[in-house]
Each structure stands twice: as C-alpha cells, then as structure tokens.
C-alpha cells in the first residue's frame, strides 16, 4: 500500500516540475492519419517507423485513399487480370500493386502509378501497325533487357517508314505528354560490363526529319518533327500533350511517326514503345 502511494507521489512530482511531457505517442491515431494524408508515400513509410501509433495510422485506408487516382476503381476492376482480387486488399496494398507495371488488354500494354504524379501508360511496338514489320529483309525482332516488354524492333533498311498506334484508356483528370522511345543503333552484348551499341547500319535520318502526330477523341491535336541524330542512346521524343477533363470517360488516342521521303533509304533504328506520362514529369526525356 505504501509503495503504491509512493509511486503516485513520484508521478505527481514529475508532472509538477515539468519533467513529464506529452510525446508523439500520445497523439490520437486519427490526428496522425490526417497529417499523413498531406505527405507523399515515401514520407508516410518513414514516419511509420517512429512508433506503434504512427505505424497503425499509416496503414489506414483513409490515408492511402488520398494517394490513389480518382478513378482507381476502374483501374482495379477493368484492367487487372481476373486472378487479381481487390476485395480483400487494403488501400495501401492496392496502391503498391498499382505502382508496379500492370499489363492490360494484352501483354503489349502496361500502366502504373508514378508516385504522386499520376498514371503512366506504355505501349509496345508489337501493338502498333508498322510498315514491313513482318518482312525480315527490313525489320528484325531483338531481345532486350532495356525494354519493358523484353524485345525491340530493329529497322535494317527501308525506303518508307510509318508507325501507327492507338489507345483507349480512362486517364485520371490532368495533363499528359506522349513520347516515342527510339534509339539509333542496335545494342549488342555487354563487354566488360558495358553495353555496346552498334551504329554501323545507321543512315538516312539526317536528310529529312521524322514527322510525329498525336490526336485525341476530344479534338486535341499535336505535331512535332525531329532529325534523329544522336546515335547510341535511347531517347524519348516528345510528340505532344493532351488534357483529360473527365476521368469517367475513356480517352481515345491516335499517334504516329513517319519518314516517307522515298528519295533515300534509312536504317539502323531501334523502336521500343510509346510512353504516356503526366506532363509535369518532363517534356523530353532520355530513357
């Protein structure tokens, strides 16, 4: 009994002289969750390591629903494969799944979340209409660990180059940029740990520019042209931007690249994919 009173007196003494102060662990979990909604995902995970209360708050659906795109239910229900069951997943688990490449339609298209910067989509060359692609005199299909889809198309030589593609996708509201990912030259095996690019077959790209086009179902259009003159590295050529104002309606895109001047041949071009990114990521990126 005396020991109990002694302990109580000690606590009262600590409180009276200011030695015992509230700490982070004393904050209500609901308040912590509200604060976490204003942080990016990496910061949330860092704060989760502070103590048990922060960890529990960081796991709540309330926090992670703010990090998901507004139409995430469409992405989950319509674009995940049938074996994926979202009903049993927390919002954090859904976020983590969406941040990984998710193939849809076929194995030649994929989408993913780019941190807090929206949805990205990548379309393989295999899902595009390409002049002479089945004729091995003109094109070859090369395995590549530098492609999201494992292979790239390599143009040996041709007179007329035309690549066309399309996409229908329910993007979240925002501004987006479309790129063609190309390389002058053909990658060979690594030598002493370095990737060697063979540029012997590169020719014809410095005479006339390549024309790029983009159009959307809501009447937006963009064009661009580039001389391809940087051999040996992958470059994402910016075709144009488009705006999505309604996330519940699918946006239909048509895109193309062409060099149809038949006065000269051109060759030595590697074609990987078309990439669609939130516009704030950058207008012209080296991939």
Q: How many DSSP E strands?
A: 15
CATH architecture descriptor text of the largest domain: Sandwich
- Would you tell me which CATH topology of the largest domain applies? Jelly Rolls
Which consecutive residue ranges, at least 5 long each, have pLDDT under 50?
1-15
What's the order of the H and E elements?
A: HHHHHHHEEEEEEEEEEEEEEE
What percent of residues are in strands?
Answer: 35-45%
For the report, how would you describe the main beta sheet? Answer: 8 strands, antiparallel
CATH homology group of the largest domain = Galactose-binding domain-like
Number of helices: 7
Cα-atom radius of gyration: 27 Å
- Whole-number tally of structural domains: 2
Structural class: alpha+beta
The oligomeric state is: single chain
So what's the overall shape?
elongated
The N- to C-terminal Cα distance equals: 73 Å
- Average predicted local confidence, pLDDT: 84
InterPro entries: F-box-like_dom_sf, F-box_dom, PP2-like
Region (Disordered): 1-22
Domain F-box: 21-67
Protein name: F-box protein PP2-A13-like
Question: Please, could you describe this protein's structure?
Answer:
This is F-box protein PP2-A13-like. InterPro entries: F-box-like_dom_sf, F-box_dom, PP2-like. Residues 21-67 form the F-box domain. Residues 1-22 are annotated as: Disordered. Pfam families: F-box, PP2. Mean pLDDT is 84; it is low at 1-15. With 287 residues, the chain is α+β, with helices and mostly antiparallel strands. The chain folds into two domains: 29-100, no CATH class; 118-278, Sandwich (Jelly Rolls). It contains seven helices and 15 strands. Strands 1, 2, 3, 5, 6, 8, 13 and 15 form an eight-stranded antiparallel beta sheet that branches. The protein has a five-stranded antiparallel beta sheet with strand order 4-7-14-11-12, with no helix packed on it. A hairpin with a 7-residue loop joins strand 5 (139-143) and strand 6 (151-155).
């Amino acid at each position: 009994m005396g020991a109990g009173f002694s302990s109580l007196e000690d606590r009262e003494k600590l409180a009276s002289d200011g030695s015992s102060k509230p700490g982070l662990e004393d904050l209500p979990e609901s308040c912590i969750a509200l604060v976490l909604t204003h942080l990016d995902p990496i910061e949330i995970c860092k704060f989760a390591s502070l103590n048990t209360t922060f960890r529990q708050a960081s796991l709540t659906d309330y926090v992670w629903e703010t990090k998901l795109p507004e139409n995430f239910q469409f992405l989950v229900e319509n674009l995940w494969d049938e074996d994926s069951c979202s009903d049993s997943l927390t919002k954090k688990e859904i976020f983590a799944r969406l941040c990984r490449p998710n193939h849809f339609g076929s194995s030649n298209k994929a989408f993913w979340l780019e941190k807090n910067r929206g949805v990205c989509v990548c379309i393989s060359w295999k899902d595009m209409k390409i002049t002479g692609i089945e004729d091995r005199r003109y094109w070859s299909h090369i395995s590549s660990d530098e492609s999201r889809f494992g292979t790239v198309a390599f143009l040996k030589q041709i007179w007329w180059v035309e690549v066309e593609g399309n996409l229908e996708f329910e993007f979240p509201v925002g501004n987006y940029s479309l790129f063609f990912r190309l390389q002058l030259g053909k990658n060979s095996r690594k030598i002493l740990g370095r990737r060697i690019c063979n540029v012997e077959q590169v020719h014809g790209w410095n005479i006339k520019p390549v024309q790029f086009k983009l159009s959307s179902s809501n009447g937006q259009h963009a064009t661009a042209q580039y001389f391809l003159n940087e051999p040996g590295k992958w470059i994402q050529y910016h075709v144009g931007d488009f705006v999505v104002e309604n996330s519940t309606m699918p946006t239909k895109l048509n895109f193309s690249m062409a060099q149809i001047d038949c006065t000269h041949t051109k060759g030595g071009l590697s074609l990987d994919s078309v990439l669609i990114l939130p516009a704030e990521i950058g207008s012209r990126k080296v991939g």
